[in-house]
């Protein structure tokens, strides 16, 4: 209810301004729309996710050059890393985009039909929301014909004794620290751990990675995960199979007490980065009060049209997607946008071939089935691996560790999956995503087109050519 005691009613309420912000275009001009955002306009990817991390990764890749250029006969040195300059350049670009996005929605005549609430939304009934403004003013109830949940997820902090008493960082805060630490300990062995370990170690920080399983990036195809773990062990102090028992303040920094294959041990560092996954925000939205079901993982349940179990309520992105990837959130936003505008002719989301990349070093990219998944699902496959060292451009780089692996159906030659670890992996995998999406089989893809020589995609060409199809 507003101050005048009237409950504001909207045609559409969008909760979250990450991917949710891309829903509105001129076709919604005649709709009465509310957007609710409790945090920084623009959401995770722009402010604390994909965009700033990759800007740091690019700087880190440059800083890492002296580490591998000498063996090519080029002696370079790293004269310094101006952390404050790197950080301020990155956020000097990002922060104005977030502020500009908010100004556009709140002040531009294009958005005369849009009301932006800076506050927290939670359901109190069917398509009924209580908004608690960030400025401390009185809560307000709004209702809507349609609601889109685009409220993402949040960092998960594991329940480890003492962890809340030490000044730990997460991906939300680590990119803005005032100065580089001398030593960083990273808890977790997934995407965020792999990317930040690369960034900080390239900048000269001593990095320790603590993982509870026996390999880093263990959801990757096993060959990729194994290779990455071996390389990480050469670069960082990697503690695998470790249980973290306790965290404590120590000597101005933090001490972790671990238990692992060699018994009890400790790790000391100046900063702790917790990178142990994310939790979808449906619980904080009290979605159950809006008749919206969640899965055991906490994700809001959606059908192929991105409809939740409540009438008139859609969801997209991290709040409902187990992938937790921006390109998936973007795709789902397009689906929801279409379905809002054309309810009589809805389209389904396409989650058949969702790729991902890890922007660490070496870079990693993957799409489709791993060998382990194929085996688990009883799917017949053949596989082929080609090394970067086995193509001309790989010789130029003296690459000795990268490879591309492809899986195909032995009968139909349809590509089932691809996994690349090595330079430019996220770029090299794109033609395979295209082939899988449009049904181009491995034989036709390999033989039916030119491959520029000596280009890096030859690593993919050769992996395809070498697939051991039955005669
Ligand atoms: C460090 C990091 C790096 C990443 N790098 C990549 C990458 O390289 N590539 C990639 O594909 N993905 C990457 N991701 C994942 C990507 O950022 C997310 O998948 C994507 O941002 C999800 O978008 P979304 O719109 O679902 O949610 P978000 O962008 O998180 O938006 C949700 C918004 O809802 C708001 N909100 C939440 N609850 C409420 C509430 N109750 N009331 C009002 N507002 C609310 C939040 O404040 C937030 O602004 C990365 C993530 C992280 C953390
Ligand atoms: N390049 C990209 O696309 C990119 C980059 C960063 C993040 N992301 C997205 O953000 C999400 C979150 O990233 P993340 O790295 O935090 O999650 P993740 O799921 O990739 O990795 C979490 C890691 O933490 C470990 N872990 C969980 N609980 C633990 C505990 N109690 N103690 C020790 N270790 C524990 C897990 O074993 C795993 O290794 C990912 O799902 C990913 O989709 C994507």
Automatic annotation (TrEMBL):
Co-factor remark: Binds 1 FAD per subunit.
Active site as annotated: 453 (proton acceptor)
Top-level taxonomic group: Bacteria
Binding locations of NAD(+): 188-195, 277
Cofactor(s) required for function per UniProt: FAD
Domain FAD/NAD(P)-binding: 10-332
Keyword vocabulary terms for this entry: Disulfide bond, FAD, Flavoprotein, NAD, NADP, Nucleotide-binding, Oxidoreductase, Redox-active center
Gene Ontology molecular function: nucleotide binding; oxidoreductase activity, acting on a sulfur group of donors, NAD(P) as acceptor
Family, per entry: Belongs to the class-I pyridine nucleotide-disulfide oxidoreductase family.
UniProt protein name: Mycothione reductase
Organism of provenance: Actinokineospora globicatena
The gene coding this protein: gor
């Amino acid at each position: 209810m507003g101050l005048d005691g009237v409950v504001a009613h909207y045609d559409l309420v969008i909760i979250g301004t990450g991917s949710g912000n891309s829903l509105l275009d001129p076709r919604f001009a005649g709709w009465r729309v509310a957007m609710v955002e409790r945090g920084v306009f623009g959401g995770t990817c722009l402010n604390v996710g994909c965009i700033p991390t990759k800007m740091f990764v690019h700087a880190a890749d440059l800083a890492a050059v002296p580490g591998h250029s000498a063996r090519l006969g080029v002696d370079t040195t790293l004269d310094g890393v101006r952390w404050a300059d790197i950080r301020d350049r990155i956020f000097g670009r990002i922060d104005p985009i977030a502020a500009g996005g908010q100004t556009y929605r709140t002040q531009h005549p294009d958005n005369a039909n849009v009301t932006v609430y800076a506050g927290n939304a939670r359901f109190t009934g069917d398509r009924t929301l209580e908004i608690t403004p960030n400025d401390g003013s009185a809560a307000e109830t709004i209702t809507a014909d349609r609601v889109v949940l685009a409220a993402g997820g949040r960092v998960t902090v594991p329940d480890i004794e003492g962890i809340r008493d030490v000044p730990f960082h997460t991906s939300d805060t680590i990119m803005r620290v005032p100065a580089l630490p001398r030593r960083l300990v990273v808890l977790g062995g997934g995407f965020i751990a792999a990317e930040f370990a690369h960034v900080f170690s390239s900048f000269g920080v001593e990095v320790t990675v603590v993982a509870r399983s026996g390999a880093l990036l263990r959801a990757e195809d096993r060959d990729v995960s194994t290779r990455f773990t071996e390389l990480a062990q050469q670069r960082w102090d990697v503690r695998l199979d470790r249980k973290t028992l306790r965290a404590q303040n120590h000597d101005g920094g933090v001490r972790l007490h671990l238990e692992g294959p060699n018994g009890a041990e400790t790790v000391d560092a100046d900063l702790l980065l917790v990178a142990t996954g994310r939790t979808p925000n449906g619980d904080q939205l009290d979605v159950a009060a809006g008749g919206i079901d969640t899965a055991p993982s906490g994700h809001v349940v959606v059908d192929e049209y991105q409809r939740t179990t409540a009438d008139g309520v859609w969801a997209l992105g991290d709040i409902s997607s187990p992938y937790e990837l921006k390109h998936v959130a973007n795709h789902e936003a397009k689906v929801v946008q279409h379905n809002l505008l054309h309810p009589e002719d809805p389209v389904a989301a396409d989650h058949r071939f969702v790729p991902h990349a890890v922007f660490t070093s070496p870079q990693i990219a993957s799409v489709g089935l791993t060998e382990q998944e194929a085996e688990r699902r009883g799917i017949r496959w053949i596989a082929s691996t080609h090394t970067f060292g086995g193509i001309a451009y790989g010789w130029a780089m003296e690459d000795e560790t990268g490879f591309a692996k492809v899986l195909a159906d032995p009968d139909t030659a349809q590509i089932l999956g691809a996994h690349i670890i090595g330079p430019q992996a996220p770029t090299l995998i794109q033609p395979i995503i295209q082939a899988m999406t449009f049904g181009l089989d491995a034989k036709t893809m390999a033989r039916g087109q030119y491959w520029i020589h000596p280009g890096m995609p030859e690593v993919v060409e050769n992996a395809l050519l070498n697939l051991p199809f039955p005669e």
